[in-house]
TrEMBL record:
It comes from Raoultibacter massiliensis. Residues 3-163 form the EngA-type G domain. GTP 1 binds at residues 9-16, 56-60, 119-122. GTPase that plays an essential role in the late steps of ribosome biogenesis. This is GTPase Der. Associates with the 50S ribosomal subunit. Belongs to the TRAFAC class TrmE-Era-EngA-EngB-Septin-like GTPase superfamily. EngA (Der) GTPase family.
Length: 163
């Protein structure tokens, strides 16, 4: 089986945009396991000849706040079980919130390699805006723009080293 890279983070940080930029095909891989495709979609990806499965998480659209936050937590736990590398996406425009901190708490307990990607950094030279993301305790933040592609190549170069 191919190595698995899971993209986690709260809604609207740009997970699907990020996955669609990196995945090879438009179509998600249909997973045989019942219930799995409902909240996660699997995509084939390749970077410099390294093939992997990219998992877009957090497709559940919810009712109550509790269930909503529970799903973010559940996705983070699932990623720590299933993935070989986890990309934790946060929103560089809005900054960190309580949901990000909750996901970070879960991910810090995992022994899987975690890459912290700060999305929506659409203009270059934003290194000076990265300081706040160190407080998540997940090492160096990687500024990216899933929409425009800035920084994604650097992140992938580092990511495939972990596979
Ligand atoms: P998800 O809920 O985490 O899957 O987030 P989506 O991929 O659906 O994106 C949420 C919103 O953020 C959409 O309106 C995207 O167009 C926008 N978005 C995603 N990536 C970027 C980015 O790099 N820059 C900007 N400015 N907007 C982005
Ligand atoms: Mg999405």
């Amino acid at each position: 089986a191919l190595p698995v890279v899971a993209v986690v983070g709260r809604p609207n940080v740009g997970k699907s945009t990020f996955v669609n930029r990196i995945a090879e095909a438009d179509e998600a891989i249909v997973h045989e396991m019942r219930g799995v495709t409902r909240d996660r979609s699997y995509h084939e990806a390749d970077w410099n000849g390294v093939h992997f499965t990219l998992v877009d998480t957090g497709g559940i659209e919810m009712g109550t706040d509790d269930a909503f936050q529970g799903s973010i937590r559940a996705q983070a736990f699932a990623a720590t079980r299933e993935a070989d590398v986890i990309v934790f996406l946060v929103d560089g425009k809005t900054g960190i919130n309580a949901d990000d901190e909750e996901v970070a708490r879960i991910l810090r307990k995992s022994d899987k390699p975690i890459m912290l990607a700060v999305n929506k950094m659409d203009t270059p030279n934003k290194v000076d805006e990265m300081w706040e993301f160190y407080q998540l305790g997940l090492g160096d933040p990687w500024p990216v723009s899933a929409m425009h592609g800035n920084g994604t190549g650097d992140l992938l170069d580092e990511l495939v080293e972990e596979l």
